[in-house]
Specification:
- It contains three helices and no strands.
- The protein is an all-alpha fold.
- The chain has one domain.
- The longest helix is centred in the last third of the chain and has 48 residues.
- The relative contact order is 0.14.
Length: 120
């Protein structure tokens, strides 16, 4: 295998890992939103900041690894990494976390109601 083909394959893998990393960051934002609900304008501002972050990270990948040349397979790799992580890890994980948070809130409410009944 030639050196240039190896480099292209490595760059594609770096693109996929960048996509996974971007989705992990967005999951952190979504988990923060589950724990602390926000107003809609704050959610919009967070999404705008995240979009800028994604653009900067993708540009940094292309600039540092490919001298700033826009390569279609790099963009596809980022999108592929995001899609794979979203479908295999993010959705099931966030559904599980959401159920656990609902369970925890229910337990807290139940415990609060019991302590009020004991005080009467």
């Amino acid at each position: 295998m030639s050196v240039s083909i190896r480099y292209e394959a490595w760059l594609f893998l770096m693109s996929i890992s960048t996509g996974v990393g971007l989705t992990v960051v967005y999951d952190c934002v979504r988990i923060f939103r589950l724990i602390c609900p926000h107003k809609m304008w704050i959610v919009g501002a967070e999404d705008l900041i995240y979009g800028i972050y994604c653009a900067v990270m993708t540009f940094t990948l292309l600039y540092e690894q490919n001298d700033g040349n826009l390569r279609g397979f790099c963009i596809c790799g980022v999108i592929l990494g995001m899609a794979v992580y979203q479908n295999l890890v993010s959705r099931p994980g966030l559904k599980y976390l959401q159920k656990r948070l609902e369970w925890l809130k229910m337990k807290i409410r139940t415990h609060g109601n019991r302590s009020k009944q004991v005080r009467r």
